[in-house]
Amino acid sequence: MKLNEILQTKLQIFTGDLFGGINSAIITLPQALAFGVATGFGAGAGIWGAVILCFAAGMLGPKIPLISGTTGPVAIVIASMMMSLNNDLRAASTILLMAAIIQMFASMTNLPSMVKYVPYPVISGFMNGVGIIIIILQINPLLGHASMPSTISTVMSLAENITSFSHDALFIGIVSLAVVFLMPKTLNKYIPSQIIALIFCTWLSVKMGLNLDRISEVSVAFPHLITPDFDIHNLIKYIPYALTIAVVFSAESMLTGLVSDSLTKTRHSPKRLLASQGIGNALCALTCSLGGSAATMRSVAALNAGATTKMCAVINPLLLIILLFKFSDFVAQIPLAVLAAILIKIGYDIIDVKLLKVLKYAPKDDLYVLFTVFLLTVFYNLIFAVGAGITLAALLYAKRVADKAELIDKPVYDTEIMEMEKALEHDYHHRIRVVHISGQFFFGSATQLISKFEEMLGTEYLILNYESDDLLDISAIFALEDIIFRLQSQEVKIVLVIKNENVLKQLKDHCIISQIGEKQVFYTELMAIDFAKQQIKSDV
Question: What is the mean pLDDT of the chain?
């Protein structure tokens, strides 16, 4: 009985992985073909890249089902690179190999775990920008013209290209768009609309004898090894490209891993994921195939079909190889306008519709970040956009934290001090003050607080109470030095209250304590107040 249960469980797992592999392969096929053509690598390189990367990353990666291959953001970056290299495949493969090596080195560090700290507006702005780029770049192929290298050149050419469009290309493109966008969701669960558009519209175009640009040739032979360009001058020139692609490869994979974790209620190793992706991309580069990353849409499709193990990442490429060898003649007949329509649907699916629905309720800071990343992604550079977005988000966060930091002025009143202050009221005001630094004291809040200490001039003993356990950054330390110097120059004596040993050690290391005097540093506020009162008594 137990043996039967074990066999039944294993059969159930295998069946889920089988359907997951089949379902994801059906989605992968049109996308791999479209991205292969769009990047300039060719349709065959797109398919073989999906096969090699999915198999290698699946076998070597974490246990969760992950389907890998070229994705929208990856395709946009590689297409831009190919345009800059004048479609030099050897140079492009060298850059992809360098990017893969960077991935493998990054997997040995703590960088993979840092992707979870990227703010959501940055991710959303980036994904929305990528979606719009894909849509804009496919307008010309949809009209029967050659694709342009950038969104700006595409927009600039629209006026001329619209007046000279191909009726056949536009017709089959509109039919394809109708299929991918209007197909009922219930049917789309079982047969993806993209594969239906690919098959039906290709058959229709051949049947009607339409005059269209087609894929024409797909290599079914196993990819051959290519010798990378190891010229030192070229390698140095390729570094910016490699870094850019490595970042996109890695970020896409990490985000897909997070999505898979949330769906499977498991936790994978980010380092292992990144290392396996790097090895897979290195194999793609050495065979002049199109590299990529873990693909969210395909991985989710596999999971929804019942996949539970990495076996689905083996079934997926095996099925792709069968389809490639069996239907290569049909693939050669696929119109570029059909691929353009499929890519437009992919671009639309990438757009973060969920955020757009609640845009009017979003905080202003989030909107600043989102639109900055979006505009820079569409009209300038993807990686610069992400870097600028993260920087802007960090600065806005720093401002919010700094705005919460404040000085709370608490005059000390007890019988003895009040009597002294009454007697010396015409000469002194608030001879003892206690100032609490509320909130985090760091580079953002330090600058604001310096100006507020000017109001303390005239005080004899200023008790500065830092209540937080957070260490000070270098800007805050310099600001504190400046505050102490200014007040001491006005003959204001500083008494420091520090409750955290690590903060105290930090201030000692930076000679702040020696600047104040160790006798004037206390653990509690009451001790500091007693000290100040004793000093005033002795002064009198």
Answer: 79
Domain ranges of the chain: 2-397, 405-539
| Residues 6+ away with beta carbon under 8 Å from 23 | 192, 301, 302, 304, 305
Query: pLDDT band for position 451 (50/70/90)?
Result: low
Distance, CA of 533 to chain centre: 56
Adjacency order of strands within the sheet including 432-438: 406-411, 432-438, 461-466, 493-498, 521-522
What whole-number distance in Å separates Cα of residue 8 and Cα of residue 152? 57
E strand or H helix at 407: strand 406-411
The DSSP-derived string for 442-469 is: SHHHHHHHHHHGGGGTT-SEEEEEE---
- pTM equals 0.66
* R_g of the chain computed on alpha carbons: 32
Crossing angle between the packed helical segments 232-264 and 382-404, to the nearest 10 degrees? 60
* Measured distance CA(335)–CA(263) in Å, rounded: 36
b/e code 248-283 from CB counts within 10 Å (16+ = b): bbbbbbbbbbebbeeeeeeebbbbbbbbbbbbbbbb
**Axis-axis angle for helices 336-350, 120-137 (nearest 10):** 160
What are the distances in angstroms from CA 136 to CA 75, 339, 378, 383? Answer: 14, 14, 9, 19
Matching residue, tokens 């080195």: 105
Rounded Cα–Cα distance for residues 55 and 279 (Å): 11
What's the mean pLDDT in 285-290?
A: 92
Are β-strands 432-438 and 406-411 bridged in parallel, bridged antiparallel, or unpaired?
antiparallel
For the segment 324-377, what is each residue's pLDDT rounded down to a tens digit? 888 878 888 888 888 888 888 878 887 877 667 767 766 777 788 888 888 888
Beta bridge partners of 293: 69
| 3-state SS class at 222 | coil
Lowest mean pLDDT among 138-147, 246-255, 279-288, 485-494: 485-494
- State the burial class of residue 318 (Cβ atoms within 10 Å of its Cβ: 0-12, 13-18, 19+): middle
Q: Does domain 405-539 have CATH number 3.40.50.300?
A: no
- Sign of torsion over alpha carbons 394, 395, 400, 402: positive
Q: Quote the DSSP letter at residue 524.
A: S
Q: Which of 351, 354, 367, 361 is nearest to 121 (CA)?
A: 367
Q: Which DSSP string corresponds to 262-329?
A: HHHT----HHHHHHHHHHHHHHHHHTT----EE-HHHHHHHHHTT--STTHHHHHHHHHHHHHHHSHH
Q: For residue 392, which of 431, 434, 364 has the smallest C-alpha distance?
A: 364
* Phi, psi values for residue 346, rounded to 5°: -60, -45
Residues 6+ apart with CB under 8 A from 177: 341, 344, 345
Cα 225 to Cα 283: distance, rounded to the nearest angstrom: 9
**H or E segment and range at residue 69:** strand 68-69
By percentage, how much of the chain surpasses pLDDT 90?
11
